[in-house]
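Re: that backbone. Tokens:
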């Protein structure tokens, strides 16, 4: 009996494994087709200036919209896209699309905003990232100094010599560089000083605990102080509450991003919001009668 049970367990196990494998394969096939069929869309989340509380830019965030199905968030397909290498053509599409959208907003009379685009380590190591960015800027006519590429700490640790060369070549194009999810990886101060980085984005896991977790408060305050010393801009991700905002304001954080201000939205909704905030900014500069 035990022998039989053992065999059944084994069979069950391999069956489960091959189900998972075939599901992955199916998803991979669907993702490839989705890219060819134009089923990916970009949403944009406003980045807020701490001084004025006005938007200074947007982060482009990819979503998958299969026809007649619910929108799929990046967490459900980016990992597989990275494993399979599909992230390279997908990332190219994201960069092109974001820069075209940015150009269209400028042409529509909106102020030239920063557009932040997430990069995958696979794109960073692809060997033609610099050429790609140069070509996309030229084709779209989007101003280089408005494009910000978001890197992660993991990218910066591998092969430091080549990394410095790539980052300098990107900076020579005139674009901006930030480190996303900062604090979750292993950046040393020496690396931060050596790499031509413009901005740190404090990971939302620290921001989440700002109200009641002493460690998160100290880590966040330290990253902000460190940014001051290294002359980097600093942004807090995932700002959801007034309490978090109050702490960040007291700590001297430069920029905010989070649901307290805006959720990621489709391009048309962002444009409407920008037109509105522009009106409210104009109203806000009328001096108080005193
Ligand atoms: P990320 O780059 O750190 O982007 C910020 C994520 O936090 C976004 O999730 C955004 O919707 C979410 N977020 C913003 N404010 C808040 C808030 O106040 N509270 C909470 N709970 N979440 C907030 P999203 O859009 O689901 O993207 C998840 C991740 O997927 C991104 O994290 C990024 O690592 C990756 N990703 C998204 N688009 C791309 C892309 O085009 N290329 C690559 N390589 N990765 C991407
Ligand atoms: Mg990001
Ligand atoms: Mg990220
Ligand atoms: Mg992040």
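Recovered sequence:
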């Amino acid at each position: 009996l035990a022998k039989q049970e053992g065999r059944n367990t084994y069979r069950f196990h391999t069956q489960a494994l091959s189900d998972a494998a075939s599901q992955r394969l199916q998803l991979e096939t669907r993702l490839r087709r989705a890219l060819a069929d134009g089923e990916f869309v970009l949403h944009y989340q406003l980045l807020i200036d701490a001084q004025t509380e006005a938007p200074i830019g947007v982060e482009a965030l990819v979503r998958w919209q299969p026809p007649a199905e619910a929108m799929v968030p990046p967490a459900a397909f980016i990992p597989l896209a990275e494993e399979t290498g599909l992230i390279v053509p997908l990332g190219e599409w994201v960069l092109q699309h974001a820069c075209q959208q940015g150009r269209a907003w400028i042409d529509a009379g909106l102020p030239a905003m920063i557009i932040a685009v997430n990069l995958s380590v696979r794109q960073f190591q692809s060997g033609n990232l610099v050429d790609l960015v140069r070509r996309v800027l030229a084709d779209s006519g989007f101003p280089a100094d408005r494009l910000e590429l978001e890197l992660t700490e993991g990218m910066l640790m591998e092969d430091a010599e080549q990394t410095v060369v790539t980052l300098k070549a990107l900076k020579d194009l005139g674009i901006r560089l930030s480190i996303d999810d900062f604090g979750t990886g292993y950046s040393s101060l020496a690396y931060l000083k050596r790499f031509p980085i413009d901005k740190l984005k404090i990971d939302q896991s620290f921001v989440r605990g700002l109200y009641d977790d002493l460690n998160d408060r100290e880590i966040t305050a330290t990253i902000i102080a460190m940014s001051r010393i290294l002359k980097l801009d600093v942004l807090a991700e995932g700002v959801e509450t007034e309490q978090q905002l109050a702490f960040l304001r007291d700590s001297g954080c430069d920029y905010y991003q989070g649901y307290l201000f805006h959720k990621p939205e489709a391009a048309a909704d962002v444009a409407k919001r920008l037109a509105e905030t522009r009106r409210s900014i104009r109203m806000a500069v009328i001096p108080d009668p005193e």
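The first strand starts at residue 40 and ends at 49. Residues 2-36 form the longest helix (35 residues).
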